[in-house]
């Protein structure tokens, strides 16, 4: 039975209050092990270790030394690829075929993605004319922000954690990570890698627990935390933003979405079906960038719906190690109850269930898992809660539209603004529509094609700030101006 302990100042630490909670596999509800909940004592120790590490050897590392060490961390994750893969799939139930192509490779790549940016990014400089004619030079200097609190969700545990830890450490900060209570394994394992690679103690710390009145709250309210980067539900982001306001700590918030796919009649049908299938059903629909609203130009609507139903019927649920499986369970029974409540709500709101809508019979061995049927609805009103609220499951609603103006208004009629996809072979229309969509990322004839240098983040209720490329610099460093009188 595994023990998932806190990782503080380079050592694994059990909970002093002996507050352990179960970690169960959503495939069959089997017990993976016990997670050691960090109390205020453990969180305080982790934050103070991170604070002290800034003044220790880590604070003397040059940028080149930090980048070399983080590249080593990435390489070590890849050397221990199978362990990370096994841990991630046990925690989440996702197919190995998915985690081996997305979660673990990106979990490592995120430590390298930022190196090029840091090496090539200049800081500003200005020459100022002065009355005495001798002038002055202004030089920008970037310094680490300090101790960064990193609070993570359960859907892409390693990827979304290192998407923050990578640039944070590359910029010379130290971190205290609070992984989701549902998926502690890969973040805990990363502590071993940090030690193996010689990352100084206190630079990378992990505290386990929940949100309110637990490690999440203790961390985000700790006065020695200099900035907070959070990925999770919008309502949680609002709470964390309030905590960050005490002491004016900067925040980076990556929150919820209710993303639209816009399919024009002139699209490459099979490309649009493949992309929309992935965006609606990959990771059992538990992707913030995923599609839950599909708008199809009327002449194509019936054909597109028929093709989507065919492809949904082909999805193969099964254990992560089942090479034929391409569809896993939801992350927990608690989350399945939430998604099933929307399946019931859809019926009450008058949806036509085109396919799915329930719980599959997975047989005796898997009957304890958080399995659910991939589902397509049609016929709902635009103001239906199922069309407006984030469900975060393997489901989407298809609706026909008749004009470009109509579909842009429909797509933007949401409090969220995270992502969207546009499918058409008319390039100028694609760009014209993309420019009008209120979302942080718009894909044209693609989905989840990620350039790690590009700005990434949400607008409206989907978040604050941008990460990726130079945008990470703004959040993970302080920019100082030094004025030199000549
Ligand atoms: N925008 C993005 O990039 C992105 C990426 C992945 C997931 N998400 C969003 O995350 C959500 C699913 O993840 P989730 O269910 O883990 O989200 P969540 O908000 O319930 O939890 C996220 C993390 O916050 C912690 N937390 C909860 N309450 C807290 C509090 N009061 N103080 C401090 N920490 C607290 C949790 O323990 C967890 O570690 C969905 O809404 C999804 O859209 C967004
Ligand atoms: O579920 C949300 C996925 C977010 C993905 C990223 O943050 C990324 O690809 O860097």
Average pLDDT reading:
97
Low-confidence stretches: none
Coarse structural class: alpha/beta
Rg result: 23 Å
CATH C-level class of the largest domain: Alpha Beta
Q: Between the first and last Cα atoms, what is the distance in angstroms?
A: 67 Å
Helicity, as a percent range = 25-40%
**Number of helices in the DSSP assignment:** 18
Estimate the strand proportion: 15-25%
At the fold tier of CATH, the topology name of the largest domain is Aldehyde Dehydrogenase, Chain A, domain 1
Order of strands, main sheet, comes to: 15-16-17-14-13-18-19
What does this structure look like?
Belongs to the aldehyde dehydrogenase family. It comes from Aeromonas simiae. InterPro entries: Ald_DH/histidinol_DH, Ald_DH_C, Ald_DH_CS_CYS, Ald_DH_CS_GLU, Ald_DH_N, Aldehyde_DH_dom, OHmuconic_semiald_DH. This protein is of the alpha/beta class and 486 residues long. The chain has two domains: 2-255 and 462-485, Aldehyde Dehydrogenase, Chain A, domain 1 (3-Layer(aba) Sandwich), CATH 3.40.605.10; 259-451, Aldehyde Dehydrogenase, Chain A, domain 2. It is 39% helix and 21% strand. The protein has 18 helices and 21 strands. It has a seven-stranded mixed beta sheet, with helices on both faces. A six-stranded mixed beta sheet has the order 10-9-8-11-12-20, with helices on both faces. A three-stranded mixed beta sheet has the order 1-5-4, with no helix packed on it. Strand 4 (20-24) and strand 5 (31-36) form a beta hairpin. The longest helix has 17 residues, at 63-79. The radius of gyration is 23 Å and the shape is globular. The mean pLDDT is 97. The structure holds nicotinamide-adenine-dinucleotide and (2Z,4E)-2-hydroxy-6-oxohexa-2,4-dienoic acid. Nicotinamide-adenine-dinucleotide (NAD) is lined by residues 151-155, 160, 178, 180-181, 210-212, 216-217, 220, 231-233, 236, 239-240, 254-257, 288, 390, 392, 418, 458, 463.
């Amino acid at each position: 039975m595994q023990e998932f302990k806190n990782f503080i100042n380079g050592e694994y630490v059990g909970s002093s209050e002996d507050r352990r909670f179960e970690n169960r596999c959503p495939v069959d509800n089997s017990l993976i092990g016990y997670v050691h909940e960090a109390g205020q004592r453990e969180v305080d120790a982790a934050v103070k270790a991170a604070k002290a590490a800034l003044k220790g050897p880590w604070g003397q590392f040059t940028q080149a030394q930090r980048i070399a060490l983080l590249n080593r961390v990435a390489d070590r994750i890849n050397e221990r690829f199978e362990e990370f893969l096994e841990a991630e799939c046990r925690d989440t139930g996702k197919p190995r075929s998915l985690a081996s192509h997305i979660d673990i490779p990106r979990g490592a790549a995120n430590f390298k993605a930022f190196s090029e940016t840091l090496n090539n990014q200049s800081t500003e400089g200005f020459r100022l004319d002065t009355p005495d004619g001798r002038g002055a030079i202004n030089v920008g200097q970037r310094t680490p922000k300090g101790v960064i609190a990193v609070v993570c969700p359960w859907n892409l545990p390693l990827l979304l954690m290192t998407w923050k830890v990578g640039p944070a450490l590359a910029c010379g900060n130290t971190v205290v990570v609070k992984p989701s209570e549902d998926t502690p394994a890969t973040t805990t394992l990363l502590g071993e890698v940090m030690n193996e690679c010689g990352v100084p103690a206190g630079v990378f710390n992990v505290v386990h627990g929940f949100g309110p009145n637990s490690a999440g709250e203790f961390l985000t309210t700790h006065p020695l935390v200099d900035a907070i980067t959070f990925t999770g539900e919008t309502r949680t982001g609002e709470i964390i933003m309030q905590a960050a306001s005490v002491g004016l700590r900067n925040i980076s918030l990556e929150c919820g979405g209710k993303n639209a796919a816009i399919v024009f009649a002139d699209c490459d049908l099979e490309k649009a079906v493949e992309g929309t299938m992935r965006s609606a059903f990959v990771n059992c629909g538990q992707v913030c960038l995923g599609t839950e609203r599909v708008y199809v130009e009327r002449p194509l609507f019936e054909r597109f719906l028929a093709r989507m139903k065919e492809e949904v019927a082909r999805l193969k649920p099964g254990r992560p190690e089942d090479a034929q499986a391409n569809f896993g369970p939801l992350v927990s029974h608690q989350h399945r109850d939430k998604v099933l409540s929307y399946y019931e709500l859809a019926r009450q709101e008058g949806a036509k269930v085109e396919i799915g809508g329930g719980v599959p019979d997975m047989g005796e061995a898997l009957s304890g898992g958080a399995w659910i049927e991939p589902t397509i609805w049609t016929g709902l009103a635009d103001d239906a809660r199922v069309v407006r609220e984030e469900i975060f499951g393997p489901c989407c609603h298809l609706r026909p539209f008749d004009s470009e103006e109509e579909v842009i208004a429909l797509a933007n009629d949401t409090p969220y603004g995270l992502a969207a996809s546009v499918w058409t072979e008319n390039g100028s229309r694609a760009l014209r529509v993309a420019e009008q969509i209120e979302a942080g990322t718009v894909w044209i004839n693609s989905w989840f094609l990620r350039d790690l240098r590009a700005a990434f983040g949400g607008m409206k209720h989907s978040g604050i700030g941008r990460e990726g490329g130079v945008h990470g610099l703004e959040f993970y460093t302080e920019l100082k101006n030094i004025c030199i009188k000549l």
